[in-house]
Structure formats: C-alpha cells, structure tokens
Design goal:
The chain has about 425 residues and is an alpha+beta fold. The chain is built from 14 helices and 21 strands.
Length: about 425
Amino acid sequence: MTDLQAETTAVLQRLIRFDTVNPPGRERAAQEYLAGYLGDAGFETTLLGAEDARPNLVARLAGAEPGPNLCLLAHVDTVLATPEEWARDPWSGEVADGFLWGRGAIDMKSQGAAEAAAAVALAREGWRPARGDLLVVSVVDEEAGGALGARWLCAEHPDLVRCDWLLNEGGGAVIPYDGRRLYGLCCGEKGVFRFRLSTTGVAGHASIPSMGDNALLKMAPILERLGGAQPSWSPTDLGGAFLRGLGEDPGDPAAALRNVAAGDPRLAMLVEPVLGVTLTPTRISASEKINVIPSRATLGVDCRVPPGLGEAEARRAVEEVLGADGYELEFSEMVPGNGSPPEGPLHDALERWVGEQDPGAEVIPVILPGYTDSVAFRDAFPDVVAYGFFPHRHMSIFETAPLIHSADERIDVRDLGFAAACYRDVTRRLLG
C-alpha cells in the first residue's frame, strides 16, 4: 500500500518548485507534470485552456456503471512571494522540522497534491469506481478570479467537468473550541457587492482653503462611521448552522458572538464576518492635482454578503451605518453568495471519516468570508454539492490562517498524509 504521507510530500515538493505566481501564471509545466503523474496511473487526461501557456487539467477514472461523479478540485497558481521576507526559499519545497515550506504549501498546492496522490494510490491498486467517475481537476488563474480557469472550463467544456459532488478548498483545519475539536466543512461562500461612495463639493485653489467646498473632507465622517460599526448581524441558514455547531443560539447572534469571544477572541474574529453583511473601506481618491481642492471624492468599499442575501440587504446595511444622505452610492460588482446544503452522502461520508480517524472530533458547517472556484461549479451545475474540505489534524485554523498569502507558508507533513487518506477513503466509500 502507498505511503500516502511520503507520496503526497514528494508531489507537493515538485509542485512548489514550479513558479506559478499569478500574474503571469505560467502553469503549463506544473499541469503537464500532474497530467503525466495521473496518466501513468491509468487516468484519462486532458489539458485545455483559453491560453496555450495556461492549460487546465481534467483527469478521469471512469466507473464500470453510470452513477454520480466525484470531482477533486484544486488550483495550481499562487500569489507572489518575496524571498527576502522568508526564512526559507519559497520555491524550495524544503522539509525542515516536520514542515514542508513554500508558496502554495497551504493555498493550495498541498490539497492538489493530496488529491492527486490519493487518486493515484487508488488507481495503482487496480481500483476503479463501481459506479460514476472520479475526476481530478487542476485549474489555473484562481488567484486572479478564475476567468481562465474554473469559470472558463465550466462555461466552455461543461461536459468534461460535470459532477454531482465536489471537494475544494475553504475548510478542514481543526477549530479548537471549548475543549472540542471541530472540523469546519465549508458549505457556503459570501458574495461580493463592492461599491463606490462619492461626495461632491466645489473645486478651488488649494492655497485658499475656504474658497472651494472640499469633497474629500466630507468623507471624514463616512470613514469614521465605517470604522466604528458594522451592520446588524442577520445569520442566514448556513450562518445559523455554524453557530449551532459551536453550541450557540443563532436567534441571538450578539450573545453568541460574545460567548465565542469570551472563549477565544481569535475564533470570534473568524465568526463575526459570516453573521451578516460586512463593509470594509479599502481605497479613496479625490483631486488629481495637489494644488486643487477636489470637487468630488470617491471611496471604494469591499462589501461581502452571506449566501441568500443580495443587493437589497447590502443597501440596507449601508444605510444602517451611514444613513441615507450625504453621499452617492454605485455598485461596481454584484456577485451573489453561493452554498450547498450541509447534508447528504458527501457530508455523511466526511463526517464518518473524521469520526473514525479522530474519535470525539466533530464536523460543523462553516461559511467562507471570501470565495473560491466552487462558485463556478455551483453556477454551472445547480445540483452539485460542493464543499471546501482539506482536513488538518496537526495544525489548527489559528496556525494555518495567518500563513495564507503570507511569508513562511508551510504545512505539517503529517497533515499531508492525513488529507490524502481522507480523499482516498471517501472516494472509495462514495463510488464503490
């Protein structure tokens, strides 16, 4: 039987040594390596993309009979790494002190390596699905929105990636809370409703401050209010399920958050964004010349909205915090949240596996404040059940979360074997 920890470690080392920083991406070499690795084990592999240098990989192990398809999804591109800020070379894949270091060690070449190693281990043993197909899909461009990756693949070649169950990034690290070990199963992702707030005035020469009507100064109270409060919490079904998983009452989110904060302030920081609409100012602009009093100032706000809510709730949140007057509001992006029900065969298989491998631990539904490629699959295939789940037993969420997109990204090698075993066992359980 394959030593999954050693196998996944070796695959991840190879993947990290491919510089796939996006932009520009340059993912082809990494994708060709994965295609060869999976192809040699018996998978039918296809490389295709909107750009020749940036192909997506679809690997399929066909079943003996028709049935549900399971897709193991990962993206191979990464964000930038500045070597001078790291203790070790971010493209070395070095193993030291029980950790594998490098850009992508958590986000998310590690999960891609674990998925591929699990799939190859099954295929090498001669296993084939009794029903349905096993898909291993590695996409490009996730870090820049997925236009050349998952979105392109689902739009242009839906029959290649059509699936009933999907496992992707977004959850799985242990959440220690109140003496319990909770594995977060990411069942939903918040939507993006970014907008611009504008204030207006009268231009004038900056050498005479009172001559104009400075639009930039009118932004001061707006920024103060945005910095002082968030909108009221309004947990949706998934947000309520998250609170119940923690043992809290979703009917009183304020009290629930106080209880969580009393138990662990770090967890409260992660819980708060999923309880409702959030407003975060990120950019401001005004006069193009330093000697001109601006007649218009514009503030960019990153607004995230839970699954099931939309523009109306975003507008109400803005008015609750800022009032209805003194600014103009214009949405620049409106992408609804997305989610899958925390129930059914995939959920049950993961919950059962966790119970077997980590007795006493629990699986609870969580919502991701950001988004992943799961949204492309949920949009293309409305019936798909898509979860974010990359189980970590030895590194908690409080250890992994600060390393994502940060310097010194690394993963405990024991968690590589743990995750690969999950994908192997759950795949066999679901597909026969």
